[in-house]
Amino acid sequence: MVMRALPQNIDPPHMSRAEARKQREARNKRAKRGKKVGVLALLVLVIAVLGVGAYGALWYMDRNKAAEDFAGPGGAPVVIQINSGETASEIGATLEAKNVVASSAAFYNAAIANPSEIQKVQPGFYQVPVQSSAASALDSLVAPDSRVGSVVIAEGRQLHDSSDAQTGSLKKGIYNLISEASCVGPVSAQKCVSTDELNTAGASSDLASLGVPDWAMSSVKSVPDKDRQLEGLIAASSWDFDPTATPTEILRSLVEGSAAKYEATGILTAGSGVGMSPYQLLVAASLVEREALPGDMAKVARVIVNRLAVDQPLQFDSTVNYSLDTTEVATTDADRERVTPWNTYAMPGLPATPIASPSIDALKAVESPAAGDWLYFVTINKEGQTLFTKSYEEHLANIELAQQSGILDSGR
Known about the structure:
The protein is mainly alpha-helical. It has helices spanning 17-66, 88-97, 104-113, 115-118, 134-142, 174-181, 195-202, 214-221, 247-263, 267-270, 278-291, 297-309, 317-322, 333-337, 360-367, 392-405, and strands spanning 77-82, 124-129, 147-148, 150-153, 162-164, 170-171, 237-240, 326-327, 376-379, 386-389. The strands form 4 sheets. Strands 1-2-3 form a 3-stranded antiparallel sheet, covered by helices on one side. Strands 6-5-8 form a 3-stranded mixed sheet, with no helix packed on it. A two-stranded antiparallel sheet has the order 4-7. The longest helix is centred in the N-terminal third of the chain and has 50 residues, at 17-66.
């Protein structure tokens, strides 16, 4: 057998010995770097494995902790807020933060076990007992009396209470409705924001703290009766507010939300077409709300625009009624003769403030009134039929029809 010599590192014939030595030194350095990189990669891998293991241990421990649940039955109620679009896990986290449930995961499990119940939970504020079991916390959320800070403001509602001259029934004002919705705590010891507290807050000269928008600021500053300065600035809508907030904070949340609703209609620019500022549009819309049925709103808006254009008093009974505690459709001669900042029989132009919270439809009607030359209108029967005319003589004849139907009969 022929023995072969082992390969030797022979320098290429064209290289000098110095050049060959430099190449060998470079190869040795690369080899050493390679070993270091390998050791470093191995170290990183070990750290990663240890990290995953530690994370897994923490996850396992948190998982066990998350399964904790209170036995119940629960203690004093606290108020929590649920926002639109929140998941069961997010609601559970809120409840855990408020000490209502022991863990968000326990609530999540209760929600998964009762899908029909969790679907009933709507955005808003709720009072639920602390240290409740997850299942009982879910039951509390869907209980009819758990919702707090929820108020519905109907179209045409005013800030203050009034009574009907015909029936004697009380029509609750916005402040009264807010007060009722603000009550929290056990039935035996409920705490509510009073109507007087709301009225005092609403009369503050610090209009910015009340959320009054810039486009209404100068007009509201000049309102002669500060108790009425927020009239019309709380829109007709369904509202949720934090019942644990101060009266000023509650009103600010409602006024700011209302301003956003009004601005979405185009109120900031629509007045250029009818010669009104944004605040004047709101005032006119409140008149339309109190004077017209939905189908006639655009026509009544046109009557307002036409009368203002010729400086003719509006002569709306709704403006006479505004400053009265007892109201009815038919006003008396004495009522109409009373000079107030709102009585449009006693002065030309618009009232000092809105006379109620207008609907968005009423506001849109003023922003885009119907085409017409009408200066007068009167509702002639209890079905709401309303006749419009430019002629005063025709208007007088229409009033006779209204009198014959009994719609203008007085209860006073």
